[in-house]
Structures are given as structure tokens and as C-alpha cells.
Automatic annotation (TrEMBL):
Residues 3-151 form the Ketopantoate reductase N-terminal domain. Pathway: Cofactor biosynthesis; (R)-pantothenate biosynthesis; (R)-pantoate from 3-methyl-2-oxobutanoate: step 2/2. Residues 178-302 form the Ketopantoate reductase C-terminal domain. Catalyzes the NADPH-dependent reduction of ketopantoate into pantoic acid. It catalyses: (R)-pantoate + NADP(+) = 2-dehydropantoate + NADPH + H(+). InterPro entries: 6-PGluconate_DH-like_C_sf, 6PGD_dom2, ApbA, KPA_reductase, KPR-Related, KPR_N, NAD(P)-bd_dom_sf. Keywords: NADP, Oxidoreductase, Pantothenate biosynthesis. Belongs to the ketopantoate reductase family. Its EC number is 1.1.1.169. This is 2-dehydropantoate 2-reductase. It comes from Halobacillus seohaensis. Transmembrane segments: none annotated.
Length: 306
């Protein structure tokens, strides 16, 4: 497949490199600073699943340098979404589908509105990865799964092709029969997990030591379930229990990508995740006091610089 990575950060560089390792044609569409870093330091994966040094990193700084592509793997942070639209449009016009793997939900209607419903595939990633000071990927989780599926019937063939590409690559990748439900399910989980770890500035093990604090995650999961339900997505009590059990089972030192960003003094996706949930709740007059409180606690750190 010919895959353009737009957002060659932790996720984009990781999955792009894995596809390249499997023999696919991967182009990194990047801005000036990242282009310089990639040219100077190359692209390396330091991963529990096997280190890899990309032999030939194809870097472009404009979509005009890309004649055509099958897929754009969109992995920017929520606060950078709007800046990608003008680069996505010409690629979509030349036939590419877009697979966004951002956490959250608000990006989907925005992309569908801007690019057309046929262009936007549903996707999400389960991985813990970050970039080090050289711009190399550090992957620390025992999982590196990509889940995707059609949001429009015309996307079935490309999802099948992508399934094959993922099977060839060193990653977990699978097509979901109900990707929208999966995205909501992850949205529920990440709102609780990233919320509590970022607000307290602690990894999950330390939070679990304080039951009064840990129970907040359950309350957020419940609020997010109700939010999904009023949007006609069948997230159930059982999904809440599974997510809560998952939070109980995570390794003590495990934390969210948003908390990692807080530790690094980087901007935070709190508005895309928690702010987005509150806006979706407002549309249905849904009261979400725990999500609202966590959102308010993280807000002062949103644009924190170390
Ligand atoms: N990291 C993780 O473990 C996980 C992250 N996620 C989600 O995936 C998404 C991406 O996260 P992550 O990979 O960590 O983010 P990173 O910050 O590591 O990477 C985002 C990249 O996007 C680039 N970028 C931003 N705007 C543009 C643009 N207009 N054109 C080109 N490149 C651009 C940035 O480059 P520049 O240097 O130019 O700013 C940066 O390299 C988020 O929504 C996150 O919540 C989901 C699961 C796990
Ligand atoms: C929960 C996790 C680690 C799963 O991929 C994640 O998505 C994040 O922290 O952003």
C-alpha cells in the first residue's frame, strides 16, 4: 500500500515504520521542524516488540509532492486537527482515504464535513508510545494494536487491504465490524484514564492506592456511557465494568499519553477529550459533574510550558 503519515509523532512514526518494515511505501508528510529532525537523526523505533531503524525515510513537506496515495494515516493531536485540513483535501481529491487515530470523538464530524463522509475511515490505536529528544519512538506497552473499520460502505475494500497490510507488519491490526462503538468505548476509557492520571499527575498505581481517588474513574466511565447512549451508541454497564477492570489491572507505572505530555510540559488534549465530551453532553442537557471537575482541574496545565 502507499501510505502517507500525517502527524509523524509517536503514533504516526511507529505505525509508519512498521508498515515500511513490512515492505509498504510510506511517506512522512511533515512540517519544517520535524523534517529537519528526521533528516538529522533518522527514524528509529525502540520497542518492546523489536527495535527497528528505518533505512530510507521518505520526507515531504507539502502534499503537492505526493502524486497519489491509498491512505493517509492521520495521527496529530486534537489541537492540531484544523491545521491538517488544507493538506488532507488535495490528497483526498487525488483518491486517498483518511484513517484518523486520534483519541476522542470531535474530530470525526469535522473531518467528515471537510473531506466528505466517503473519505473518513474509523480508527483507533492501543499503544503507549512517545518521542525521545532525538525524535525517535519509544514504545513501552506490550500492545501495539490498531483497530479500524468502515464508516461508509464504500470503504470496505480499503479496510480489507489495510487488514492485509497490518497482518504483514509487526503490529496488532484488525478490522472491526462496529468501529463507531469501539471508538466510543475507547473514548470512555481514555476520558477516565487520561483524566485521572493527568489531573493528579500520578501513574495509575499511585491512584489506586487511594480508593477515594480511584473511584472517580468509575464515575467518569458511567458519565461517558450515558453520553454514548444519548448519542445512540450502545455502550453498556458491562462495557463500564470491563473498562474499570482494565484500569484495575494496568501495571502500576502505566500512565496516559496526556499525562506523559503534562510531565514534558507539552500542550494537552484536554479540550479535545474532556471539553469535547462536555460539549456533546450539553447538546442533550446531560449533567457530567465528574468529567467537568476533571476538565477544570487539567485546564490550567493545558498550555503549560516547562
Ligand atoms: N502516544 C500514545 O501512546 C497514544 C496516542 N494516541 C492519540 O493519538 C494522537 C496522536 O498522538 P501522538 O502520536 O502521541 O502525538 P505526537 O505529539 O507525538 O505527534 C503528533 C505529530 O503531529 C505533527 N503535526 C501536528 N500538526 C501537523 C500538521 N499540520 N502537519 C504535519 N504534522 C503535524 C507534530 O509535528 P510537529 O513537530 O510539526 O508539531 C507531531 O509530530 C492523539 O490524539 C493521541 O491522544 C492514542 C493512543 C496512544
Ligand atoms: C490508554 C492508552 C495508553 C491506550 O492506547 C492511550 O490511548 C493513551 O494514553 O493515549
Amino acid at each position: 500500500m502507499k501510505i502517507v503519515v500525517l502527524g509523524a509523532g509517536a503514533l504516526g512514526a511507529y505505525y509508519g515504520a512498521r508498515w515500511q518494515e513490512a515492505g509498504h511505501d510510506v511517506i512522512y508528510l511533515v512540517r519544517e521542524r520535524r523534517a529537519e529532525q528526521l533528516r538529522k537523526n533518522g527514524l528509529h523505533l525502540h520497542s518492546e516488540k523489536g527495535n527497528y531503524k528505518v533505512p530510507n525515510v521518505q520526507i515531504v513537506e507539502s502534499p503537492e509532492q505526493i502524486e497519489n496515495a491509498d491512505l493517509v494515516f492521520l495521527s496529530v493531536k486534537g489541537y492540531h486537527l484544523h491545521g491538517t485540513i488544507s493538506w488532507l483535501k488535495p490528497l483526498v481529491q487525488r483518491g486517498a482515504k483518511v484513517l484518523p487515530v486520534l483519541n476522542g470523538m470531535e474530530h470525526l464530524p469535522i473531518l467528515q464535513e471537510e473531506l466528505g463522509e466517503e473519505a473518513v475511515i474509523g480508527g483507533l490505536a492501543y499503544i503507549i508510545a512517545t518521542l525521545d529528544e532525538n525524535g525517535h519512538v519509544v514504545h513501552t506497552s506490550p500492545f501495539h494494536d490498531l483497530v479500524f473499520g468502515p464508516l461508509h460502505t464504500s470503504q470496505q475494500p480499503i479496510c480489507e487491504e489495510l487488514g492485509i497490510a497490518c497482518n504483514q507488519a509487526n503490529m496488532g491490526g484488525k478490522q472491526s465490524p462496529n468501529i463507531l462503538e469501539d471508538i466510543w468505548n475507547k473514548y470512555m476509557f481514555i476520558t477516565a484514564f487520561s483524566g485521572i492520571t493527568t489531573a493528579t499527575n500520578l501513574p495509575i498505581g499511585d491512584i489506586r492506592k487511594s480508593p477515594q481517588t480511584f473511584i472517580i474513574t468509575k464515575r467518569i466511565l458511567e458519565e461517558m456511557r450515558k453520553l454514548a447512549n444519548v448519542h445512540n451508541i450502545q455502550i453498556t454497564e458491562e462495557h463500564v465494568e470491563v473498562a474499570f477492570e482494565r484500569l484495575k489491572g494496568l501495571d502500576d507505572e502505566m500512565t496516559s499519553s496526556m499525562h506523559q505530555d503534562r510531565r514534558k510540559g507539552l500542550p494537552l488534549e484536554v479540550e479535545h477529550l474532556h471539553g469535547g465530551a462536555l460539549r456533546l453532553g450539553d447538546e442533550h442537557n446531560l449533567d457530567m459533574p465528574y468529567t467537568q471537575t476533571i476538565h477544570a482541574m487539567i485546564k490550567p496545565y493545558e498550555a503549560f510550558q516547562k
